[in-house]
TrEMBL record:
UniProt keyword list: Signal
Protein species of origin: Paenibacillus farraposensis
Record-annotated Copper amine oxidase-like N-terminal domain positions: 33-137
Name of the protein this chain belongs to: Copper amine oxidase N-terminal domain-containing protein
Membrane-spanning ranges: none
UniProt xrefs under InterPro entries: Cu_amine_oxidase-like_N, Mao_N_sf
Amino acid sequence: MKKFMGLIFSVVIVSSSISGSALAASPVPKVTVDQKAVAFPDAKPYVESNRVLIPVRFVSQALGAKVDYKNKTVLISQDGKSISMKVNSAIVTRDQDKLLLDVPARVQKNRVYVPLRFVSEALGAQVDWNKAKLLVAISTGTGAADPEQPEKKPEESKTFFKPFEWEEKTGLAKSLFKNNIRVNAGTVTFTVPADATASFYGDGKTVKLSPGKEYSYPLGLGSISFSRIYAAENYIEAYSVFLDTKHPTLHGQFDDVTGDAVVDHTLIKNEKMVGTAGTLGEVIAAAKSL
C-alpha cells in the first residue's frame, strides 16, 4: 500500500563530508525493491552512523520515480509527488512542505547521495533494515514479503521509541498541544497554529492544511504532520500525529491503544537521533506545564 508520508522529521545539519578512503572502507549494503536487487553500476551505498546513504538516482528509478539534477539540486517526481533537495543543504521541499534531513544531500564519486529511508518513504514505500545481513528491503506493497527480511519480534518493537520528550524549542508545542488539539468521540480536532506548516496524509492523498483554520479527522486512518521553521537558527520543531495507532511506522509499540492518537517526535541528543513517542492524551497533559 503506497502512502506518501514523511515518517520522522529530524533537526540537525551535518557540515562535514566523508573522505574517499572512508567511503571505500565502509560496508556495502544490499538494497532490494520488492525482492529485486537494485544495481549500483558506478557508486555503491554505504552505512554511516547506522544510516544507509545511496546514490539517489538508482533507488528512485527502481521505485518508478523520475530523477533530474539541475543547478546542484536533485528533483524527484512520481505520480504527482515531488521532492527537491539541494546538494549540501539539509532543507528539503516535499510538495509544499519544507523539512530538514538529519544528513544533507552530498556529492561523492560524481553521484548525489541521500538518506535512503527518507526518499523511499516519501515515495510511498516501506523500508526495513537488517543490520546483520546489511540488507535494506524496500516494499511498495505490490509484491510479496522479502524472504530475507527477519520477522520483527514484539519484544524488539516495543523498544523502538523512547518515552515522549520535548525538544529545546517548544513554540509550536505550546500553540498546538496546549488548549488546542483535542480528542472527542473518536475525532481529533485542532486549529493549525500560525507560522506552522501542516499536512494530512491518508488514503493515498496529501492535503495541505491552512494556518488558522480548524480541522477534524476521525481516528483510525492517516497521520498529520506539523512543523515550524526557526530560520535564524536553521532549526525545525516538528511533530507527527498518527491517527492509526497500529501504523507500521510505530512498530507495534501502541497496538493496544484505543480511542487516542500517537504523537511521534525526533530529538537530537549528543549528536544522536532519538525517536520519542507518546499518546496524544499524554502529550496534551504534558503541555499544560509549558
